[in-house]
Amino acid sequence: MIEIEDSVVLKPGFTLPAPAITGPETNLYGEAMLSYSGEMAMDARWRRVEPAPVVTPPLLLLSSLPHPQMRLRVPLRLRVEREGDLVSVWNEEVEELGYGPHLTAAVEDFQQTVVELYTSLRQDRERLGPALQVLWNRLEHLVEWRP
What we know:
Layout: E1 7-10, E2 16-17, E3 25-26, E4 32-35, E5 41-42, E6 59-62, E7 70-72, E8 76-83, E9 86-91, E10 96-100, H1 103-123, H2 130-142, E11 143-145
Antiparallel strand pairs: 1-4, 2-5, 3-4, 6-8, 7-11, 8-9, 9-10
């Protein structure tokens, strides 16, 4: 196969990002070669291919926290919702929300929120009011602290 800078070999039915098509040319094997760059998808028959719809799962299981001393004892069920350009995740057990421009950012925001909540409640556990004491008991059941 001959490689040409900024070009890619396409076979029928194969799609790729390509708003600026400058071919077609053929390589030694008779395969169509198209120069491309950018975001628009084209197939080998030169028809525009519509982007796939964004699919957001309705539920996600979270099994880790980004803290070396914290481990989830059981996975947390996160309800996932998309509204416009934002994705949010919610867990009823800890009554916390995470959000971001995509699912990964929302999950990372949720994880950081749980870490901060656990850390602050752990520090003040002797002075918690009744509602926060109930939340601390739930968190203590869900999160294992490793010294």
